[in-house]
Specification:
Blueprint lengths: L7 H15 L8 H14 L5 H10 L5 H9 L10 H11 L9 E5 L6 H14 L4 E7 L2 H9 L1 E3 L8 H7 E3 L7 E4 L1 H4 L2 E5 L12 E6 L8 H14 E9 L12 E5 L2 E4 L1
Parallel strand pairs: 1-2, 1-7, 2-6, 7-8
Antiparallel strand pairs: 3-5, 4-5, 8-10, 9-10
């Protein structure tokens, strides 16, 4: 099989492209990753260089090959009930005090294949006891959103789901679906997924009482972080909560958000 090599100049083309499109800053150490993930597209189009492929990408429609590159070069790592302290805070501090008659609105702003959004859905359904709620899940990658919308997962992905929630909200696959599970339709009907680019204007999607933006900011430079957090804060209701990843911080980049506990912020 033909092995492709990417030149420094070609790498910079894709580095600048992905930064302009979604704000992700690819370090020079990602050169091997870019080569391995995009080589299959060169083979697909029978192209001889990454430069030729780049020309094809920029000439394509926004939802064509450009989206393919975004899908291939963005990281989508997630699992159910990731970072349990956040869910414990919702369970013990926030949800017991929710009194509003209107639906509680939550945004999983980098939902990947949907595990985060469905984890939140299980907790809300269990805790709110019939009170209305809805979840909006978004991601830059259209590829992972297809999995999220289906709510169908391999059983080796379910570690972290409390046993009571497994029994209540997950259907175990049988026959040709053995080894998989399907999120209950009642929950799936309350979770909406859509492609959203956090670097672009967000449009009329809010307001939200809670926004999860976890393990995303680490990929952006300070300027892009400030832009994204400003947009998200505008979508929060007064006293609304923003959750970020445990390896992340809003130090020096947030305005109008106060720390509640580490990595949880409230809109003031």
């Amino acid at each position: 099989m033909l092995e492709f090599k990417i030149s420094d100049e070609e790498f910079v083309l894709f580095k600048d492209f992905i930064y302009e499109q979604v704000g992700i800053n690819l370090s020079n150490e990602k050169k091997t990753l870019v080569t391995s993930r995009l080589s299959k597209r060169l083979r697909h189009y029978s192209l001889g260089s990454f430069g030729e492929y780049f020309n094809l990408v920029v000439a394509s429609q926004p939802h064509g090959e450009r989206q393919v590159v975004i899908d291939l070069l963005t990281t989508n790592e997630t699992y159910f009930f990731r970072e349990p302290k956040h869910f414990a805070y919702l369970e013990k501090e926030f949800l017991p005090n929710w009194r509003s008659p209107r639906p509680l609105r939550v945004w999983s702003a980098a939902s990947s294949t949907g595990e985060e959004a469905y984890s939140i859905a299980m907790l809300l359904d269990d805790m709110l006891e019939g009170k209305p709620w809805e979840i909006f899940g978004s991601d830059i990658s259209s590829r992972v959103l297809k999995t999220a919308q289906q709510g169908h997962y391999q059983q080796n992905r379910i570690e972290g789901i409390p046993k009571s929630f497994l029994l209540k909200y997950c259907l175990k696959g049988k026959g040709e679906y053995e080894g998989t599970l399907l999120i209950d339709k009642v929950l799936r009907n309350k979770v909406t997924f859509r492609a959203v680019n956090l670097k672009r204007p967000l449009g009329n999607i809010g307001p939200f009482d809670i926004i999860f933006l976890r393990n995303v900011l680490i990929y952006f430079d300070t300027q892009t972080k400030q832009q994204i957090i400003k947009q998200l804060a505008e979508k929060l209701t007064p006293d609304g909560l923003l959750f970020i990843g445990h390896s992340e911080s809003l130090k020096g980049i947030h305005d109008g958000l106060e720390s509640v506990i580490p990595t949880v912020y409230r809109k003031t």
